[in-house]
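Fill-in record for 4-coumarate--CoA ligase-like 7.
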Amino acid sequence: MSPTIYTSSHPKVFIPQTSVFTHVFASRGQGDIGGFPGSMKAFIDSASGAYITRAQLMDLALSFAHGLRNHPNTRAKRGDTVLIHSPNSLAVPVVLFGCVAAGIRCSTANSAYNFQELAHQYTDSRAKIVITAEDGLKTTTHLNIISLLSMVGAHFPPIMQGDMMIGILPFYHIYGEYQVVNLPLVVGLPVVIQPRFEPTEFCANIEKYKVTHGLIVPPILVVLARHPAAEKYNLSTLRYLCSGAAPLGRDLVLQVKQRLRKNGAVCDIAQGYGLTETSPTTHLLPHFEADRKMGTIGLLMPNLEARLVDDDDGDVDAEEGKPGELWIRGPSVMKGYLNNPAATANAITRDGWFRTGDVAIRDKEGFFTIVDRRKELIKYKCPPAELESVLLTHADIADSAVIGVDDIEQATELPRAYVVHAHPEEIKTSAAKALFAESVVKWMETKVAKHKFLRGGVSVIEAIPKSAAGKILRRELRDLAKTERAVTPLKSKL
């Protein structure tokens, strides 16, 4: 029996067979840069108000490219790798597009990396040149990037004169690099660059620059739902927020929409899905369906195919309406892992399917919902993302993560929650933390089915460990859980 292959309900889009630099900066008329006036602001520094225009960005990138190839201290050749280690700034787009123009590979490092972490990426990427701020890997192709820009750009909400995007996602991560650096240039949307996320500064910049669009992660929505800055500043210009990198619960979206509405903002809050290996976006919830299909990751992007499989080999399809591992095939899927053919072969099948490792459900209208990471499903029939979204509706919880912990007596895993108190000064003592944890356990029992109770307990911590993209680092929590069990071993009920 042939496999069930889902295709996008969107019409296919034309994907130019050209370089990223040509696609973004091609002139289509006098003074035109990429379909928009060269004098249009491209990127704005949030703190100083300094900016570079589209024409300046192109000229600076070309000058940087020339320097890379010809300066006696670099003499970079096509195919060499440049390692970029910098927080968000006006210089980063110049460096990125300069490398593209010079035919140089870019490896972007987390700006918070210490020496050892940076050394590892330097060695792994085989970089010839390191570019870093004063204070301071996957292999995708031009086709991957242009495919993304064509597919997402065709379904981005309408842009009006004066619209502005807030650039808060780190440019060293693919979500920020492609969606906040590349995409706005293609759709003609100026970007206000904020180097690092800080709630008050974020809200102040929305008011100052009359921001209309934002690509964000769920923790930022938690801030908009809870932080006093969201009421102190005028956020009424916001029209579109799209969240990615981690599952987004329906209840949190409703909380944010209600609070923004009090501030005068009529804002669509959508959700997208993708991975570094898929460059990244594969699914996007249309802005006009944001309320009706809240909680889903939307529709499959044009030109892509998807499967939901029920086994490791892909021989068995998940039943209609049932969860299965999401596989993706199409022009935005990466070429492979740099210098690691074994990992590439393990991730991409011979016929081009990328195994995402995420479990999804598809409804009859073609909208997908992520259940959870396949490796993160708790054996006690609980997807962590579902429990986390419920926990985030608790008035005194600022952030949460759920993992499975072993229960020796029942020979299974039980869900344990790690939570961050919204007002930590109120629970400074161990006794206060224990009382709060107990109250959360009881509160959850009023919110979820019995088999989803937090039978593994609740632990109060200062911060949920996360990657730069906002993904929960569950491995660190599992390591923490091992130490907690060592201190307080499971007691027999006999």
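KEY FINDING: The longest strand covers residues 397-407.
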